[in-house]
Amino acid sequence: MHPVIVTHIQSVLRQVGVVAGVTTFVVVLAFAPSAAAQVSEAAYTGCGGVDAPVINDAFEARVVELVNQQRAANGALPPLKRVPALDKAARYHAADLGTDNYFAHDTFDRNGGSLVRVCGAFDRIRRWYDWWTAGENIGAGYRTPEEVMAGWMGSPGHRQNILNPNYREIGVGYFSGAGDYGVYWVQDLGARSGEYPILINNDAAVTSDRNVEIFVHGEWSEMRLRNDSNAWGEWQPFVSRFTWTLNDGAGERIVSAELRSEAQTYSACDKITLVNRAADESSQPISAYQLYLPSIVSSQPVQPPVTCE
């Protein structure tokens, strides 16, 4: 069976009230139950809330990487941060599509071989993620992240979701082993009111270079930053993109930011694993614009360890 991409949907919650705008392209439902679907009929019932197992985290992470590459290549759009809540929403739907053998954004249960609609996509997503604006892309039959992303980017509606400048976060679900198409992909994108992520190297997990690129979402007047549990730097004018130098030494490295404007103050962080590299490689800043860490003197108190989820 050929790979298919059926629909994309978007919804927006505005401050003056709830206004849902849904754009739907051709919708196809696979109603004929397969043997796999009959066996797994009761695995996922209701409107979400159950955490599906991770089938291939590397595939999911690669989709996020490709999304951020596309956003960078199309107008230097802000990168999206992968968050567990959207991963869970996407994984549930991918697993449900395969085990109940259907293909749609709305959530269905299979009962005695018949599909019964349970809820809409945005109700399902909200079981994990309290969105202010959200969108979803689905695909089936594609073997690799590169294939499904090529399909999405070749479709105007799906491309619009991937390149939506209002989104700040993303989650991806991958499922294989059941359903007529065998492989199912779900991409949930969105933003939450009052959440402004910070990203290191477009949300990469690993780096071998201490010099990294930082992006901070939101519009602020001032910011200050620190590495790990170091002392905070001085407040300085806010910029959303800049180069930053991590602390030396292999292991998990955390960059924290405090952001403020006239209306509010906000804290955010991101983490990345720094791996060893050749001893003769330079660790000097490589960007024309660089934010430097403050000097640390012995009289400053020891800072407690920090964590970043």
Summarize the structure.
With 309 residues, the protein is an alpha+beta fold.
- Specify Rg, calculated over alpha carbons: 21 Å
Helical content class: 10-25%
Give the strand line-up of the largest sheet: 2-1-6-8-7-3
Return the average pLDDT rounded to an integer: 82
Let me know the number of strands: 17
Structural class call reads alpha+beta
Low-confidence stretches: 12-42, 279-303
Order of helices and strands: EEHHEHEEHEHHEEEEEEEEEEE
Contiguous helical run count: 6
Largest sheet: 6 strands, mixed
* Shape by Cα distribution: elongated
**Percentage of residues in DSSP E strands:** 25-35%
Give the N-to-C terminal Cα separation: 40 Å
Which features characterize this protein?
309 residues; alpha+beta; 5-stranded mixed beta sheet; 20% helix
Structural commentary:
By secondary structure, this protein is of the alpha+beta class. It is 20% helix and 30% strand. A six-stranded mixed β-sheet has the order 2-1-6-8-7-3. A five-stranded mixed β-sheet has the order 10-16-15-12-13, with no helix packed on it. Strands 9-11-14-17 form a four-stranded mixed β-sheet, with no helix packed on it. A hairpin with a 6-residue loop joins β7 and β8. The longest helix is centred in the N-terminal third of the chain and has 17 residues. It is elongated. It starts with 7 loop residues before the first strand and ends in an 18-residue tail after the last strand. The relative contact order is 0.15.
